[in-house]
């Protein structure tokens, strides 16, 4: 892990370092990402999506999860990765994220496919490097080095919170 | 009274006694109480006011005698002594000597008459009921060490009891001897007293105790209720209501610990006066007479209060009318409390939501089974299931529904008060008060209703002389009517007053800059002006209405719950407001439309009509926008697909459908591809990811399990009218 550890840490203002524990990993455009398993409510197949007009492109719309209306965000677009067609491995991770009013609320993200659940010890996690502005580090809590490669750990709370303060680029007039 | 009157010490000791009493139980050691009593006697001294000294004698004797009913007796005594000492301190008349005291000593004490005290025959000087200078008492509503949850329950129950009491009193005003209603009102105060005692709300306990005595006397026929008695009961109910209101606010953390001024001592004194005087013998606070109406339906209460009573009303006219065998049965508004359970509204909402889901899931199963086809048993079972879910949904919805009666009862009181205040004669006719409405809707309709009824009574109904001059009966009539029409509750507020004068409205509108001087408005549009912000037709601001809250706020409140309000008025004949609101806020009836395969829900209440336009019906105004001809009226057209950025919808309007939306005064045609159907949908919030994005009022799960977005019709209609929204 020396190559990652030697990278300079991210600038101030990034989220706190990811905690050790179990992570669900998933793929997005050939890269592997992870979210804490405890934040994951369920994984479902792609289902009918109702688009909501005047939203930034990464907000795909809303889905019906057993009667609840849940926002669905495309993580590829959110992370600035290229658009891809949905395929048979594409699936939806339904997570619980912090609600503004306290408590949690369901929040769904589209990923290219889920991989596995892994355990990460504290020494396997290092702070995210400064990518030089190429990647939005607001959402990244750390990097984990594994035999198969590097896993980027994502903070879905931060992803969800960012929807409320949309970046000007994604805004459409309404 | 003795000049250096040690009132502080006396009050301190009395407080201690009160506290001791709260914990005192029969059979327990009464030594401490005895000691406190001795100390009090010592402080009052040998030169104290004779009434108070006698009061102390009585208490010592009663305490010595012990036995049953001691606590109650001492509570009465404590309340009396508290007042007597206050009276002594302020050199005011002593409170009446409670009947219970006599029994303790075995002989009735001579009634002492301190300086300005009335002769016992009840001919006191007239005094307005609780004028502005009425003696008030600073009350800290939350007792020390109270339990928030218990206090909340107390407040909730007190509010119900108050509503019951008020309704009952208004019935009693018409038929003072109605036994069942008397019993209801008596029980109301009795329960309030008991609850207040449990919560250690000493002031409330004292006040309600007095009211209970008054009603008990009425119940036993010793003191039939007349106008003076009714007034004091209503005034007391108001004080309790203020107390409860303040408590509720403080429980929410607003200015907790604040004391409020309540005219409790003055009220209690007034109760004593009423009790001491024979029925009809009380001087009327206002020169008014209770019309000698026979016992009538509560729904038809007449509050006749001539501004100037020509001459004293004969005793007979005021005397209560005893119900006779021939009298038509009196229908009393009554809240049945038996067998009811208090349920947290959140739980109820949760249940309603779940049932809504069940209904949708059920219909999905049925659709899937239809597709599979062929199995009779399955079809029968599913039919059964459908019946049960429909029943379940009805029942769940019904649990949230309460009769609108409560809101209407408040109006009786309001109209009565306005009539008294302005010297008008107004009769309020209430119809359909059993109409059931979702409780959230009732909460939202409360303020607009108060405002509109007050307007009708204040601005609508004329003074009696003016009415007679106009050839109308002196008594004005306001009618409140509630009914179900389709999925909506319709409330009409009609008055037979002076009506709205279109030319005056026009002039006002021009003055306020709401319309251009040359604008041509039809009558409907002119009447709509009263809903414009900053428009008030009142010539003068009265303290009854015209406090700056206009009809625009009323309309906004009603629109917030997806309702609408309409007005009709004939000058000289009266005005009628019609409010239509959804029965419930959880479910709406929606028109489902499609644009390029996407479906949207439009609340049907906002839809005026829909039609397929002829190609010629659309005109373009120099590239700025399109207009559609709706029965000769040019209405701006909005292409929903373009507005939402959905490609692939119909391009030529004559292949689509125009849905005409209305929001108040404004209309807009919405071009969609097709009408899919009508459906009742459960409204879901879109959640915080979509907060701050106008255009959608929520989402609904449609019959096939997919989500349809509910259009925010008000925003769509008003789109572009506000310069900041012209971007569309």
Topology at a glance:
The complex is a heterodimer of chains A (174) and B (728).
Chain A: H1 2-5, E1 21-28, E2 31-36, E3 40-45, E4 59-65, E5 68-74, H2 75-78, E6 91-98, E7 104-111, E8 113-120, E9 125-126, E10 140-146, E11 149-154, H3 156-164
Parallel strand pairs in A: 2-11, 5-7
Antiparallel strand pairs in A: 1-2, 1-8, 3-6, 4-5, 6-7, 9-10, 10-11
Chain B: H1 7-23, H2 31-44, H3 50-65, H4 70-90, H5 99-105, E1 137-140, H6 148-174, H7 179-198, H8 202-219, H9 227-251, E2 259-262, H10 264-276, E3 300-303, H11 315-318, H12 345-372, H13 376-400, E4 401-403, H14 405-422, E5 426-431, E6 436-438, H15 439-460, H16 464-469, E7 476-485, E8 488-495, H17 502-511, H18 523-528, H19 551-560, E9 564-570, E10 574-582, E11 587-595, E12 598-603, E13 607-611, E14 618-621, E15 625-630, E16 633-639, H20 640-644, E17 657-663, E18 666-672, E19 674-682, E20 696-701, E21 707-711, H21 713-718
Parallel strand pairs in B: 5-7, 12-21, 16-18
Antiparallel strand pairs in B: 1-2, 3-5, 4-6, 7-8, 8-10, 9-10, 11-12, 11-19, 13-17, 14-15, 15-16, 17-18, 20-21
Task: Give your account of this protein's structure.
The complex is a heterodimer of chains A (174) and B (728). Chain A has 174 residues and is mainly beta. Chain A has one domain (2-167): Beta Barrel (OB fold (Dihydrolipoamide Acetyltransferase, E2P)), CATH 2.40.50. Helix content of chain A is 10%, strand content 42%. Chain A is built from three helices and eleven strands; from the N terminus they run αβββββαββββββα. Chain A has helices at residues 2-5, 75-78, 156-164; strands at 21-28, 31-36, 40-45, 59-65, 68-74, 91-98, 104-111, 113-120, 125-126, 140-146, 149-154. In chain A, a hairpin with a 2-residue loop joins strand 1 (21-28) and strand 2. Chain A is globular. Chain B is of the alpha+beta class and 728 residues long. Chain B folds into four domains: 7-105, no CATH class; 137-285, HPT domain (Four Helix Bundle (Hemerythrin (Met), subunit A), Up-down Bundle); 292-310 and 345-500 and 537-585, Heat Shock Protein 90, CATH 3.30.565.10; 587-725, CheA-289, Domain 4 (OB fold (Dihydrolipoamide Acetyltransferase, E2P)). In chain B, the strands form five sheets. A six-stranded mixed sheet of chain B has the order 3-5-7-8-10-9. Chain B has a six-stranded mixed sheet with strand order 13-17-18-16-15-14. In chain B, helix 3 runs antiparallel to helix 4, helix 6 packs across helix 14 (405-422) and helix 7 packs antiparallel against helix 8. The radius of gyration of chain B is 32 Å and the shape is elongated. The chains are: A mainly beta (174), B alpha+beta (728).
